[in-house]
């Protein structure tokens, strides 16, 4: 069943899933989604978030570890996933954070997840709309090149470390503002950085960054999303078969 | 083959493995160990550490993720393990960090590890010598209750968060000293905290802490080490069998 929530926030496409990334969904949204047969998911970074989301009526949980890109907590996927699976009491749980390969997907399933929720790996897909300057930096980066920083959104979010962070971390730099003031402060600057980096400006290329998880170190080429997906699934199945052979 | 390195640092027991936790082993130690048939291992938190350790001649690598207790880097086990397995080119790799259950062991094997290296879970063993005050705090803690802090050793090490860290983080507190000066500064204070906490002193109980990983949230009871080990292995085998059934 696919419903168009055309009255909500300019959504024009039929919806099959609403995923909440920061906080619990408003009760009206959950009620409406249930009436329309639309599943409601929530990303959680701590067990206490899962308790709140289940109380709010979400249908499935996404356990997002600290290694994920964007807004993350501090608990790693290896530790968080089994905790959320236990709290979910049979509701589906997807694991997120650190998953860009079939072996990592197999590990997530071993932890008890029903599936995986990938983000960073799609930034290496041909379909992704990020500019070339950003993608080139991702392909050159290692797993040590990310950090959780509040300097873009006002809340800690994992992103590629760049000269931007060096500037904000200087002893005489002001602390970032809380959400939503920090994005209001820096979004225009980021539009200029992105445009100048894409035009090849050296300073802008040093500043250039975007949200990405620690798996950035494993991204080596831009490939079609369908090819990435097929390889993750095939490698996951192969790894599970190999594990079975160890018994 | 088991050799007594009785001339080295007061070691009186036959050795089967030498594991280096901070930096590469001295060349003389590697040469001697190879002559005596003693395996040399190294804990690594970044791919570049693995490159250095392999150049130094270590026989096996332990990929230790940020979720581990003690001195850790920032890369999570989910991301680090496959990177180290790839660099090891067939040498054995153990995964460490976030592993205290059979499902977590199965996940580590799925990531390509040949085995696991557990630390925190032994702090919940009956054989462990930590004081009762510390163990009680571990059993009551959640996965959110650890942090990486340099306030004990001078280098970032994951430990249970306590009033100790609140004090060091006050705006007017001095920064911790580098290793090895910080342990010289605080080790006597820690002896007093441990003794007073064990005697039930309220302030000391608030300060009490020790090195532990994020799996602390899954420790619920003190059990014999043999029982912990047997359960991890049995649950790992069961989970691998369950995964096979999904294919």
Strand order of the largest sheet of chain A: 3-4-5-7-8
Strand content of chain A: 5-15%
Count of β-strands of chain A: 10
User: What is the number of helical segments of chain A per DSSP (H or I, 4+ residues)?
Assistant: 9
Give the low-confidence spans of chain A: none
What secondary-structure arrangement, pairings included, does this model have?
Two copies of one chain form a homodimer.
Chain A: E1 3-4, E2 14-15, E3 17-20, H1 27-36, E4 39-44, H2 47-55, E5 60-64, E6 70-71, H3 77-88, E7 93-96, H4 102-110, E8 115-117, H5 132-140, E9 146-149, E10 157-160, H6 163-168, H7 181-198, H8 202-207, H9 225-246
Parallel strand pairs in A: 3-4, 4-5, 5-7, 7-8
Antiparallel strand pairs in A: 1-2, 6-10, 9-10
Helix pairs in contact in A: 2-3, 4-9
List keywords for this structure.
homodimer; 247 residues; alpha/beta; TIM Barrel; five-stranded parallel beta sheet; 9 helices; globular
Explained architecture:
Two copies of one chain form a homodimer. Chain A is of the alpha/beta class and 247 residues long. Chain A has nine helices and ten strands. In chain A, strand 7 (93-96), helix 4 (102-110) and strand 8 form a beta-alpha-beta unit. The first copy, chain A, starts with a strand and ends with a helix. Chains A and B meet through helix 3, helix 4 and helix 9 of A and helix 3, helix 4 and helix 9 of B.
């Amino acid at each position: 069943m696919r419903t168009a929530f055309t009255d909500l926030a300019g959504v024009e496409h039929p919806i099959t899933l609403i995923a909440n990334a920061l906080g619990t969904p408003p009760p009206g949204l959950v009620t409406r989604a249930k009436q329309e047969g639309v599943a409601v998911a929530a990303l959680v970074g701590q067990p206490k978030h899962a308790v709140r989301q289940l109380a709010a009526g979400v249908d499935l949980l996404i356990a997002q570890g600290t290694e994920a890109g964007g807004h993350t907590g501090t608990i790693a996927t290896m530790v968080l996933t089994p905790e959320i699976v236990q709290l979910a009491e049979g509701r589906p749980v997807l694991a997120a954070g650190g998953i860009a390969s079939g072996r990592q997907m197999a590990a997530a399933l071993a932890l008890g997840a029903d599936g995986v929720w990938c983000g960073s790996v799609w930034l290496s897909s041909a379909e992704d709309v990020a500019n070339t300057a950003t993608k080139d930096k991702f392909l050159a980066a290692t797993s040590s090149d990310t950090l959780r920083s509040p300097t873009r959104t006002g809340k800690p979010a994992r992103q590629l470390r760049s000269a931007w962070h060096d500037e904000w971390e200087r002893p005489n730099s002001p602390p970032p503002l809380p959400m939503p003031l920090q994005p209001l402060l820096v979004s225009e600057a980021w539009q200029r950085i992105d445009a100048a980096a894409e035009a090849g400006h050296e300073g802008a290329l040093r500043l250039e960054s975007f949200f990405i998880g620690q798996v950035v170190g494993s991204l080596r080429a831009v490939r079609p999303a369908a090819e990435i997906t097929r390889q993750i699934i095939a490698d996951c199945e192969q790894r599970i078969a190999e594990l079975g052979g160890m018994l």
